[in-house]
Amino acid sequence: TFSVLDALKTFTRGLGNNDDYFVNVFGESGSLTTEFVPTRDQLAKFVADGGRSGPISLYDAVFAAANKVSQMKNPKKILLLLTDGSDQNSQHSLKQLKTHLRSVNVPLYAVTFSNDPREFFSYVDLTQKGPRQVFRVDERSGVDTAALAELSKTTGGQTFEGSLRNRYYLAALCQRVMSEISNQYVIGFYPDSRDNKWHRLSLSVRTPASA
């Protein structure tokens, strides 16, 4: 967690004067939303207090953060998610979260990472006399990773995967997301009639003739 905070401090120092951001930290102790990157002491105090205010699960936290992002003044908005775990008992389903993100027009960029080296354990099934099996205590489910990837793609974002090496590595991943956003254009479409349905559009780009 502290490496993530240090990475966010490095990343936010490169933002422009007109860029707005907020940080939402969520976990078993609830969630903490600030208009700045909290320090280690501030985060430790929050965890120690154990107030359990706000969402404590991944989908619920993203749902709440999307509402706050949608209210910010800048026309181009993104939600950057740094996570090393799966969702745990959220009140909102993946389908509900997907629909909500699209309704508020907030693309999700997810950086999923793991804490390597992982801790390994082994066991033997004595009833079957089988070979020794090895598992990792913090192994993420492929279903969880695929769900985040699908969520990012359907909202116009992207998912990046990597190991939690250090704060500079994470800051570089965040900067990669910012670079991609800075080089994007937004195209608006207004249908002839409002039917509250999604429409599939086809876009063709014509390059100018060379001089």
Overview of this structure, please?
This protein is of the alpha/beta class. It is 35% helix and 17% strand. It is built from six helices and seven strands. The strands form three sheets. Strands 3-4-7 form a three-stranded parallel beta sheet. The chain has a two-stranded antiparallel ribbon with strand order 1-2. The longest helix is centred in the last third of the chain and has 16 residues, at 167-182. The termini are far apart.
Helix tally equals 6
Radius of gyration: 20 Å
Q: What portion of the residues fall into strands of 2 or more residues?
A: 15-25%
Helicity, as a percent range: 25-40%
Shape: globular
* SS-based class: alpha/beta
Q: What is the averaged pLDDT score?
A: 78
- The count of strands amounts to 7
Strand order of the largest sheet: 3-4-7
End-to-end Cα distance: 54 Å
Main sheet attributes: strand count, strand direction, barrel closure: 3 strands, parallel
Order of helices and strands: HEEHHEHEEEHEH
Low-confidence sequence ranges = 117-126, 132-139
